[in-house]
Amino acid sequence: MKIAVVAANGRVAQKVVKEALDRGFEVKAFGRGAENKTAASDYVQKDIMDLTKEDLAGFDAVVDGFGAWEEDKLDGHVKTSQHLCDILAGTDTRLLIVGGAGSLFVNPEHTAVVSDGADFPAMFLPLAKAQGEELAKLRERNDVKWTFISPAGDFQADGERSGKYILAGEELTLNSKGESIISYADYAIAMVDEIEKGDHIQQRISVVRE
């Protein structure tokens, strides 16, 4: 398979690049910085907002690894994913987005989300709101084969690669130990599995360590 990873120098995106390469995928990485921090030999320095239809033509899938924590950059979550949607609209190329856990539902009625909880860390609220808005905008698109993949609540950058995960849906899911946890490495496995054999078109899915 031939995939593009944008904002590829991000820590999650780097894991996705490596996982895909290890499976024999052809990977082209796009990053804003001059330095290629990924394992891909094909790297292009280009900001997401400068990408064109020509840049992303011919790929089976595009992975959006954009992430921002600074409050003045949080609107980039909506802007960048919508720009990618505009580029890929009407094509067969899938768009897979590294999402957040704050927007996962915590009740069967889907009226309450993780970030509504009293114990949700205040410092993460702006990010959760931004990624929730990103998902809401994606739901309005029926012209793009998008998939939004939310990690578990405890998303561990340096966690082990267990190779095992539970594929879940829109609700916060706990494993047999009552945990909502996953490593970047296992998340990358789930992302590449979804590219390879998934069919969750225009859906949000989530993953948690088994």
From TrEMBL:
Residues 8-193 form the NAD(P)-binding domain. It comes from the Bacteria. GO terms for molecular function: oxidoreductase activity, acting on the CH-NH group of donors, NAD or NADP as acceptor. This is NAD(P)H-binding protein. It comes from Limosilactobacillus mucosae.
